Amino acid sequence: MLADLPYSTRRLISPLYYYYYYYYYYYYYYYYYYYYYYYYYYYYYYYYYYYYYYYYYYYYYYYYYYYYYYYYYYYYYYYYYYYYYYYYYYYYYYYYCYYVLCCCVYY
């Protein structure tokens, strides 16, 4: 395109032509860098959010499991205590009826 023009015109246009292309490539490089930075920031934010969500879910699951385990343990302990208490009174009543009342009847 420039070869068809005269030499004086080429000398006048050539710096502007290269300056224009230099500016264009600089602008393109800047845009590409900005886009890369934005993508990197978005990816980092997404990763951080995912990590936070995963940590929160894990913590919630752990808390729920701990609460369930504690509730089960408490229920088991309560049942065992009730069972022990019931048999204790049963044997006490049996002992009282057999050894005290029966002995009083014999004597």
UniProtKB/TrEMBL annotation:
<feature type="transmembrane region" description="Helical">
    <location>
        <begin position="50"/>
        <end position="68"/>
    </location>
</feature>
<feature type="transmembrane region" description="Helical">
    <location>
        <begin position="88"/>
        <end position="106"/>
    </location>
</feature>
<protein>
    <submittedName>
        <fullName>Uncharacterized protein</fullName>
    </submittedName>
</protein>
<feature type="transmembrane region" description="Helical">
    <location>
        <begin position="20"/>
        <end position="38"/>
    </location>
</feature>
<keyword id="KW-0812">Transmembrane</keyword>
<keyword id="KW-1133">Transmembrane helix</keyword>
<keyword id="KW-0472">Membrane</keyword>
